[in-house]
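Entry:
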Amino acid sequence: MKRKTFWLLFISLLGILFIFSGCKQDDNSSGKEQKDNKDNKEETKTIKPIDAEKNGFIRAVGWLSNDTVLIQKQSAKKTMLIKYHLFTGENDVLFETTDIISEIKISPDRQYFFIYGVSIENKVALTIYNSESGQKIKSHAMQPLAANFHWNPDSPEKIMVIVYEQNFSYSAYVYDFLKDNYQAVSLPSALVSWYGDNLYLANQKSDQSELGNLYLQNIHSESEKDLIAANIFEFATNRNLLLTIEEGGLMRKLLITFAPVAFSQFQSMKCHVNMINWALLSHILT
């Protein structure tokens, strides 16, 4: 689904900015201390490299805190999820499994992560874990089908699940794992993103067009919707930022719009890009 790598990349960039802006001199020190500080180099933190053993390291899943990341590694026939401390190099194994993992995602508040995987008994499940301890919170059995998952940023106990059938049709569900409630919902499109507790954005496209209209809708009422942007290719959200890609009106140009997700004051920044950059943009947003 287009958007998920964009979210991971964007969150990683913000985390890197946090790391490099985290160290500064004390502005409240005395005159003597300030003079001494001038004679000494400013203290910096150094990120410890990960010991990526051959065929061991798979990927960095995402941020668990401002100085720890979740690492996925393979050891023998087991997959390990490790909390890696960037500045100390310490490794804390949160979870080990022999399941085949299809998807791992961390919640927006970093309190949880889920694993969508297949056990050795060929049972498919979506399982929620505590990010601090690795303790299992809840698990829901599912059919062995391709699926996309969207954490709710305002209510992280809710996950929107889009399941794709073999005939390319889809069905949608909202999983409230704290209430152990897995409820089917009706969505006008599979191209969706949460906007609030019960609101979501949907890019509605016809079968004959690559362009769609972006609507803000209520999860409990398909008839309640507001048009946000018309004739767009794709969209993505991250925190308070909305990104849309549309035709730029110029030959071999695309128009990228960055706007705050506050639709009552929909002020935006726009830029044109060459069509040659579309492959890169597509990779970022997938």
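The radius of gyration is 22 Å.
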